[in-house]
């Protein structure tokens, strides 16, 4: 399968934000290997504003002063220009990064320097920690999720069953004809990298090997309970009913037999389900 540069719908949101007046730091959060870096470069190419891109995703986290050096490079782009863009990728790897970003952002605001700042990060917890501690009121979040069924269908021509089986990681799509190789890529390049580079940076872990066997799915302030029905006759109380009774979800959805069609559910943007 040939690798295709596909422009996701969310890229238009990024482009629009960068064309607006400088108001907030734009924070793009999402898992690894879903196209965040590709999307920001597509947006930068489309708007043609002078920019500086720098990535802190190195074997060892860069020193604290790395941030100010990149900021100065962006300021150099302002010479004879009315605006410039600074993109800091995986900056959450640097200890106390948000304090330095706040200092430099506020300094530009006082001086009237029109530098628009974009922060990309694959560790939502580390990014959110920095945002809450130092950057309150100075940022907007753009959530960059796994590829949807609609995107995989439009880009790769996948049918529903193929999307359900292989999931929404575009980088692995070229390997699906060799399932063993695909599985190894997902394990080594996606799962292991997320654990070793993101999760283990949060806290000391006594037994990392056991952590690698643990997976948790969570949603911050709202819960949607979803039941996928196969059409078989129920012989006991619905799991959805039990869950709703205990956790009082924001909404309950039934997908499949006598509910929302599976294809429609996967085509719909996730945020739509969180609307009343």
Explained architecture:
This protein has 276 residues and is an alpha/beta fold. It contains twelve helices and seven strands. The protein has helices at residues 10-19, 36-47, 66-76, 97-111, 124-134, 149-156, 160-166, 179-197, 208-211, 239-247, 262-267, 270-273, and strands spanning 25-29, 51-55, 84-89, 115-121, 139-143, 224-229, 251-256. The strands form two sheets. It has a five-stranded parallel β-sheet, sandwiched between helices. The longest helix has 19 residues, at 179-197. The radius of gyration is 21 Å and the shape is globular. 23% of the residues are buried. The model is unreliable at 210-219 (pLDDT under 50).
Quick synopsis:
This protein is an alpha/beta fold and 276 residues long.
* Largest beta-sheet characterization: 5 strands, parallel
Note the gap between the termini: 40 Å
Tally of distinct domains: 3
Number of contiguous helices: 12
CATH architecture of the largest domain: 3-Layer(aba) Sandwich
Indicate the mean pLDDT.
81
Radius of gyration: 21 Å
Low-pLDDT runs of 5+ residues are: 210-219
- Shape, please? globular
> By CATH's scheme, which homologous superfamily of the largest domain applies?
P-loop containing nucleotide triphosphate hydrolases
Number of strands: 7
- CATH topology-level fold name of the largest domain: Rossmann fold
**Helical content class:** 40-55%
Spatial arrangement of strands, main beta sheet? 2-3-4-1-5
CATH secondary-structure class of the largest domain:
Alpha Beta
Alpha-beta content class = alpha/beta
β-sheet strand percentage = 5-15%
| Secondary-structure element series | HEHEHEHEHEHHHHEHEHH
């Amino acid at each position: 399968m040939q690798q295709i540069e596909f422009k996701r719908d969310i890229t238009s949101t990024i482009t629009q934000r960068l064309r607006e007046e400088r108001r907030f730091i734009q924070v793009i959060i999402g898992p690894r290997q879903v196209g965040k870096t590709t999307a920001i470069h597509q947006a930068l190419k489309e708007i043609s504003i002078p920019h500086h891109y720098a990535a802190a995703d190195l074997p060892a986290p860069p020193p604290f002063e790395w941030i100010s050096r990149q900021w100065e490079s962006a300021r150099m782009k302002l010479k004879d220009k009315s605006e410039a863009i600074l993109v800091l990728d995986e900056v959450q790897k640097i200890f106390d990064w948000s304090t330095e970003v706040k200092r430099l952002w506020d300094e530009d605001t006082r001086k009237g320097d029109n530098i628009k700042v974009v922060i990309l990060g694959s560790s939502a917890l580390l990014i959110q920690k920095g945002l809450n501690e130092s950057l309150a009121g100075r940022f907007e979040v753009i959530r960059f999720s796994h590829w949807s069924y609609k995107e995989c269908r439009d880009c790769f021509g996948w049918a529903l069953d193929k999307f359900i089986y292989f999931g929404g990681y575009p980088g692995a799509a070229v390997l699906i004809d060799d399932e063993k190789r695909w599985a190894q890529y997902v394990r080594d390049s996606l799962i292991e990298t997320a654990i070793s580079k993101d999760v283990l940076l949060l806290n000391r872990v006594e037994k990392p090997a056991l952590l690698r066997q643990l997976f948790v799915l969570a949603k911050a302030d709202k819960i949607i309970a979803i039941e996928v029905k196969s059409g078989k006759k129920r012989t006991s109380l619905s799991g959805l009913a039990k869950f709703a009774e205990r956790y009082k979800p924001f909404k309950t959805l039934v997908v499949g037999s006598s509910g929302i069609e599976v294809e429609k559910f996967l085509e719909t943007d996730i945020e739509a389900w969180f609307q009343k």
